[in-house]
Amino acid sequence: AQTVTQSQPEMSVQEAETVTLSCTYDTSENNYYLFWYKQPPSRQMILVIRQEAYKQQNATENRFSVNFQKAAKSFSLKISDSQLGDTAMYFCAFILSEDNYGQNFVFGPGTRLSVLP
Amino acid sequence: EPEVTQTPSHQVTQMGQEVILRCVPISNHLYFYWYRQILGQKVEFLVSFYNNEISEKSEIFDDQFSVERPDGSNFTLKIRSTKLEDSAMYFCASSERTGTYEQYFGPGTRLTVT
Predict the structure, then answer these.
(1) Lowest-pLDDT range of A29-33, A34-38, B91-95
(2) Are A109 and B105 within 8 A, CB to CB?
(3) What's the pLDDT at A98?
(4) Who contacts A91 (Cβ-Cβ below 8 Å, separation ≥6)?
(5) Helix (H) or strand (E) run with residue B56 in it
(6) Are A102 and B56 an interchain contact pair (Cβ–Cβ within 8 Å)?
(7) Is CB count within 10 Å lower at the N or C end of chain B?
(8) For an interface test with A, which of B37, B100, B111 has the most A Cβ atoms less than 10 Å from its Cβ?
(9) Distance CA B34, CA B74 (A)
(10) Cβ contact (<8 Å) for B45 and A46?
(11) For A39, nearest residue in chain B (alpha carbons)
């Protein structure tokens, strides 16, 4: 079974600074996808960034970037120039590729990020 | 931008009652999902649905739960006899294609069982 671990239940960062959220996962499969979802206080989950396991290049989306270490099964999220609107719960999620069994996401427990003014 | 919608935003029900949570997926999406999030805990997969049948379900999704796509637009989750531990946020999601493609989440329905 696949598992996702986020070891930081809560983090805080000063506005305009950089913060890194950790995520590790466990799978015996080779093809899969990793995601970071953001859940602000309004509670709707929004996709932040996605990484395909077969791609060596780390995904980047504006101020958000990942450090994907496949051998270490690590998928951390870096937020640069943090903004107050980044305050949210962040979930790391894993899904097997469509060639493998399973369609559902496995979510980590989440990291609550607070951006301080 | 198209989005997944869910109604109601908050549902309060008494233990033992039946509830139906409603979702309208994005119109051209073919795969539909329900997740739940007990307060303070992680998001958990309940069920996925494709071509008018369940394609996968978790151990949480027992006989008390059922899903249906009664028409071309709605996707519902029914809990037949609610228990206190069913209190949670329930998220619907849809995707154009299976798994590897982005699942779009709705805003959620907060279910409170008293």
Answers:
(1) A29-33
(2) no
(3) 59
(4) A6, A36, A37, A38, A39, A45, A107, A108, A110, B42, B43
(5) strand B53-57
(6) yes
(7) N
(8) B100
(9) 13
(10) no
(11) B107
